Structures are given as structure tokens and as C-alpha cells.
What we know:
The protein is built from 21 helices and no strands.
Amino acid sequence: MSQSTTSTPATAAPVNSRARVITASLIGTTIEFYDFYAYATAAVLVFPTLFFPGTDATASLLSSFAVFGAAMVARPIGAIVFGHFGDRFGRKATLVASLLTMGIATFLIGCLPTFENIGWVAALLLLVLRLAQGFALGGEWSGAALVATENAPQGKRAWYGTFPQLGAPLGFIIANSLFLIINFLLPHAEGTAQRSPEFLAWGWRVPFWFSAVMVIIGLWVRLKLVESKTFSTAEKAGAIKKFPLGQVFRRYGKQLILGTFFMLATYVLFYLMTVWTLSYGTAATDAPTPGLGFTYVDFVIMQIVGVVFFGIFTLLSGPVADAIGRRKLLIWVTSAIIVFGALFTVFLLPQGDPKFTGALMQGFLIFGFTLMGATFGPMGALLPELFPTNVRYTGSAVAYNVSSILGAAVAPFIAVALWQTGGGNPWLVGVYLSVMSVLTLIALLVSRETKDTAYEENLT
């Protein structure tokens, strides 16, 4: 991999204004993560009942999570397809296509008939649309990260790279706030707030339909983008490859492996904090696999408080990574995640006083989401910096999304199984997070710093 220790100074005004770059990179990932979170919330609240009904509640939940995880298998395929076109023909058109794909799939999920209407075919259609979501997200993240970092001023790539990352906490807050609003507006009997007849009949569909409005806004912003100077330079130099994926595997296999393991701890933490905790926190204390017994409304509000810290530390991580380097920051943060995994029983076991249980749970969410922001933020710069311009979209997308299979695809499923194995004690879930984080730490320790990689010369 060709690298330089200094970046090329800007000699002309940027082709895209700072506001346009930030908005275009942020709005797309916000929409994409909103769509994903809408599914994740429904996967816990309604899909087990509406698409996977049965006498065993845990089996229904695991079936719902299995479809949730299936999308991760489609993400590397999306990374290859969108990465190919992004490296061949530019970032702009590819980003528009990925956004449309995700938006259409999400809207159609809101239109699906349920098991009661068409039997097992309902679950099959849900799986197909979930795979389409994964396919789209496979191409979205890398393109958004490249829009941000390839248009960044000298010495501020990690800072700019945090803006597409900020879409994750924003998407979570918007999606879950909308579910909460719908829950408050719909009439329900006392004690059935999270599964009122109206919510199960049609209320859960509204967040999926609302994605259409967000997609229209996102398309309007992205259609105004101009290709970055970095990509245009590679194109003029004749450095564009006809088959970027082949070039990535032939010359950058080590970078692919490192990038995949860089993201592993991030992905496992991400889906434990957003998906598994919702199941554990809202499960009844006297259930076969007991949880903490919070109501859906109370727990999601607690999650949203935690996600605010996710957003804050995502932004703060950028300037720190630009100052001290991505590798050094992530080594410290990953070490903290390993310790965090060992503390699950300290934070998550029920206490005699429900208020104390709630305080510990809130502390757990704040601690976990703070670490999530600190580890997720620098990835917007780190993964693209592993690859040269002419294969950067493909390389970073494949590494990011192959990691989703090893981490995110199985994390909620494994966590529920471990939680069940522990008889309701989540200590094994924490061990799982710590072990995956050790693998990330090893990858970081054997890697080298990338913050001084020169984007425009890095064409071979």
C-alpha cells in the first residue's frame, strides 16, 4: 500500500462546501440507521407475535432475531456491488442508489401482511425485505464515510469522518422516539402499553412508512453533491480499476483482515446495547428467562438517554483521533470495553430496591454507549485510510460489512442464548463481549497508524 507521511495541501476551493459534505454524509446514514432501528425495535416488540407466533416466547424472539441477523449476510454482497460501482463510476450515484434501495425495502415492510393473514409466507417476505435492507446498508456506510473524508480539510479526516457515524445515534433517537409517540397516542388498557391492539394492528407500521419522507429529503441533499477532488484526481490519472474487488483481494488482503477485526468489538457492543438490552430490560422478572421487568416506555427512554452520550462521544472522538492517532485511541477504548464486559453482573443483576436497579441500568447504558461513541467515531476515517482511492469504496465496505457477520449478525442471537443458558444471569453475555474485544485489541496492536496517509497520492 502506497503511503506518505504528509498530506497534499489544498490549492483550490473545495468542490463541495463544508455544510454540504456534512449534511450529505450525515443524512444518509441517519436514514439508513433509522430504518435499521425501526426493524430492531419491531423485532423485539411485535414481530415475534405477528410473524413468528408460537407457545414458546423465547423461540419466537430468537426467530425474529434470526431474520434480523440475516440482513448482515446480505451486507457484504451490497458492499461488493455498491463498492464496485462507487470505485468505478463515483460516490454520488452509488449513494443515491443505496438510499433508494433501503427506503423502498423499509416502506414495504410497513405494508406486509402478517402470519394471521398469509401464514409462513409473511415471514418469508419479511426475510426478503430484511435482506434488501442489509444489501443497501452494505453500500451506504462506506460511501458516506468517503464523502466526508475525501472532502475533509488537511488534518481533519477523523473529525469529518465522525459525521456519518453520528447517523447511528440520531437514527436510534428518531426511530425509538417515533415508536414512543405512537405508543402514547394509541389507546390501551392498563398494563398493556407496549402491545395494545391498535399498536399490533397498525401502529407499528407508521415508523416504516415515515421512512419515505426521510428518503425524499436525503435524495434532495445527495443529488446536489459533486464528486470529490480525490476521486476526480484518480480518474484523471487513469487509476480507476475495472474490477476493484479483485485488486483488493490481490493486494490488500492484510488490510481487509485488519479492518474486519477493527470493527468486531464495535459491532458486538453496538447490537448488545441497542437490541439485546431491550429484550433483557423489558423481560418479566418471573419469566422462564427472567429480565429486569421495566416497561417498554421506561426502558426506551433510558436507552435514549444513553444514546445521547453515544452521539456526544462520537463527535468528541474525531478531534482526539486526529491529534493522537486512530490506533492509540482505539487501543485504550477497546481495553475499556473488555473491562466493561466483565462488569455486566455488577450493573445488570436485579437489586432489592427497584430504583437502585434502574439507576444501575441507566449507568450501564451511559457507560456502554459512551464507549460505543468512542470506538465507532474513528472508524469513519480508519477503515478508508487502509485502502487507496481507486479501491477505497470496495475495500472499506467489504471490511466493514464482513465484520457485521462476525459481530452484528450473531450478537443478539448469541446473547439471548447465553442469557438463557445463564438462567437469566447475563454474565456470559459480558464474557462474550470481552472475548470479541480481545480479538479487536490484537488486531490494533499488530497494525500501524494511518492518520498521516495521503489520500490523493494513494492511487496504487
